Amino acid sequence: MSSDPQNIIESGYDAMAEQYLAVFGEGVPDDPRIRFVGELAGRLPDGARVLELGCGAGVPATALLAQRFDVLGVDISAAQLALAAQRVPNAAFRKADMISLELPDASFDAVTAFYSFNHIPREQQQPLLVKIARWLRPGGLLLASFGQGGSADDVEPWLGVPMFFASHDPATNTRHLTEAGFTPIVDELVSRETGMGREAWQWVLARAVGEGEGVGR
Fold first, then answer.
1. What is the pLDDT of residues 98-120, one digit of tens each?
2. What is the model's pTM?
3. Contact, 17 vs 24, CB < 8 A?
4. 126-161: buried (b, 16+ CB within 10 Å) or exposed (e) per residue?
5. If you ran DSSP here, which 8-state letter would residue 215 be given?
6. 3-class state of residue 153 by DSSP
7. N or C: which end of the chain has fewer CB within 10 A?
8. What is the DSSP letter of 213?
9. Sign (positive/negative) of CA torsion 156, 161, 166, 169?
10. Contact of 5 with 121, CB cutoff 8 Å
11. What is the pLDDT of residues 10-41, one digit of tens each?
12. d(CA 171, CA 163)
């Protein structure tokens, strides 16, 4: 097995694409993605450009976003992207690693990252936030869920495949956001039963420096 996190994540999500869709796709009870997408959408005009990092199979988040916005979904897994393209034909998709992804500055009104930062090595999470701040127009919005266990970079079995995980504690996540140029609007710990055990995530909606100059409110 490869020791490279990106290879582990790509091969893992390719191998269990259908299973992940069945467990975490549409119809998840009390799915926080639904509520937080609503929090974001209420602050954006129709047609806003939205980048989704780690879009997976496209449901439910990409599909919800694409109802009103111009969405680009990015994922490292070709199998996940194939499922997403079938389910959300009105969005655009790109196969890429979030860490090495390069996009023009000030090209998006919002960036979302649902359950994807926990697959980024800890030392690369804050630099990625800095890149996201560059991709956003002044006053643009970031909606992201962060692992909050403070776990070291690790590989463990998950949905039948080896998977890479990493996270900081909530205070560190919030500090990284502030240092990258974000002002939190919502910063909330959400704990819920997933059917695979109880999980807690830090959900953050934050505005990039330049509030009042962008499209949001």
1. 999 999 999 999 999 999 999 99
2. 0.93
3. no
4. bebbebbbebbbebbbbbbbbbbeeeeeebeeeeeb
5. S
6. coil
7. N
8. S
9. negative
10. yes
11. 999 999 999 999 888 877 878 999 999 999 99
12. 25
